[in-house]
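Quarterly update from the structural biology core.
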Amino acid sequence: MRRTVTDQWGAGWKVRARALRGAGTAPPHPGPDADRMLRRLEAALGRYPAPLVASASTDVWEAAAPISDPVDAELAEFRRQWHRPGTTLWVATEAGPGLVRDGLTWLFTPRSGTWEVELVARGRFRRWARWQVSGEEAAERVLATVTSEVAAGRVPVPSGAALVEVVDHRPPPRPRSMP
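Predicted structure, tokenized:
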């Protein structure tokens, strides 16, 4: 089940519902941070992204350091190996059979009674929200509610569904100086 909708700011959204796989999938229930998730959803549906909080980069691969450092020399040697994990030969010989087995196991896993309704923004930046609900009829109702609420410019709060994830990867607006 899929639908498309345009919000009050002109942004396009896709709304879809799908059944989750897994016999052991627990029925959805709202967590302790339901209010926080609702605030994040309101910010993700807004015209401008939420303000950026301070963060630090811990990416070791981009850190500049001299090659005379013994650890960096060892990392450089590791990168030159043709049989290291992640290369084509390693996947074909060591990880490939396990990946095929896991894929076949997933395909033969029965679908659960839990459905996921997903609201995904179309465009350059990734934004989405996911609700979980029990049953196909309930998923259709939640899909219709989310579609109508987004089109009306309101934050969707479908009854019987648990908001499980909200993601907004838009960069914060930069203040512009006036000439």
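Residues 161 and 177 are 44 Å apart (CA to CA).
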